[in-house]
Amino acid sequence: MVDNSLSPHGGVLIERVAPWDAAAAGGRRCLAHLPRIAVRDQIARECVNLAYGFFSPLEGFMGRADLDSVARQMTLDSGYVWSIPIVLDLADAEVAQLGLKPGDTVLLTYQEQPLATLEVTEIYSYDKEFLARQVYGTTEEAHPGALRTYGYQDKFVAGPVTLINPPRINPPFDRFWQTPRQLRQILADRGWNRVVAHQTRNVPHAGHEWLMKGAWLAAAADGVLVSAVIGEKKPGDYIDEAIVLTHDLLREAGFFRQETHLTSTLMWDMRYAGPREAVFHALVRKNLGCTHHMFGRDHAGVGSYYDTYAAHRVFEDLPDLGIKSVLTLEWWYCPVCGGVAYEGLCGHREQKQDLAGTLIRRIIQGGAEPAPTTLRAEVLEVVRECADKYGFGSPFVADTYLENRTPVMSMPALDCACTCSDP
Length: 423
Ligand SMILES: [Zn+2]
Prior knowledge:
Blueprint lengths: L35 E3 L2 H12 L7 E2 L2 H10 L15 E2 L1 H7 L6 E6 L2 E7 L2 E3 L3 H9 L7 H8 L3 E9 L4 E2 L10 H11 L4 E6 L5 H13 L4 E8 L9 H13 L8 E7 L7 H13 L4 E4 L14 H4 L10 E4 L3 E4 L4 E4 L14 H8 L12 H13 L9 H6 L4 E2 L13
Parallel strand pairs: 1-4, 9-10, 9-12, 10-11, 12-13
Antiparallel strand pairs: 2-7, 3-7, 4-5, 5-7, 6-7, 8-16, 14-15
This protein binds zinc ion.
């Protein structure tokens, strides 16, 4: 039993992992006889997350009662707060072809290998436009979350998931990926009773570094857990390798003491749901063993769909979430203060220089000098190494990277040829 005072969401850490062993399968039916659904990257990542308890108390893909409750009131049918739909979609044609019905067990495959089994409890349709409006506050396709919702196929297939073939996490991510149980153990071993999570998809500039340091102070935390979101990439994003390795560098180079900082990854495809995504991020990090979660400006927002601090306000109505939000304003460079300054303290708003992405990109592209008040030279060096080693010459995602990168997770070969006497 891990000695961590913070309970997972719902009270119990879900773990549904049962590596398949054909020889020991005994009376279990051979995998070869099960109907198969080949899942895409997003669904594969969500299967892994469900099985290891990142999404506790969810045990599988949502049924209608849960989905409807999440859409309407941001809770599961059981009453636990939950903000983002976790669903498995399937085309009518495929449902018909497989003859799929409640009670069936399905084999989910990924990269042409068995991944997980799904015990089908329900097959249903749901109004996607309603879902988009409720979850994202808009029905516009310009919103990536709404667009993803419209992209779901005709039916949702619900039921608990069991991981039967745990994927291999490839370097350099293997050092930074832990299951919630493993991570909770690490935090307990370190004696971290108060842990503040930092959600990121960025290479850390001075503003991010101070955001973490400020949150550490504000939460009176033992440690900062960087939880880098690794998922679907679009051109122009930082490559995943640069994100994790630069964050780890902040610790390695002593900008955080070894004992105060840890970098981890979360495989997740951003929904950009603003306040609802902030709640989701808080719940997942609660499951990882964090007691606090920092939220800055426009957390998980996109375009101008959400108010700048909508993700701060949402927590006012959720006092019993079981993880506390640390709400932060911006850090910027102030020439009068003579360094990186906090919006809540610096009185020279007119002279501030924003640590904007465009400035950081200019530094990375060689158009400006790095500095501890913008982007650290040490961070820049790792960014350049990652560009050479992983990015095909660039730290930013380009088509070459998307086509040729080593995937974050690979499926081991699992022989599920029939060895039984069933027809
Ligand atoms: Zn100032």
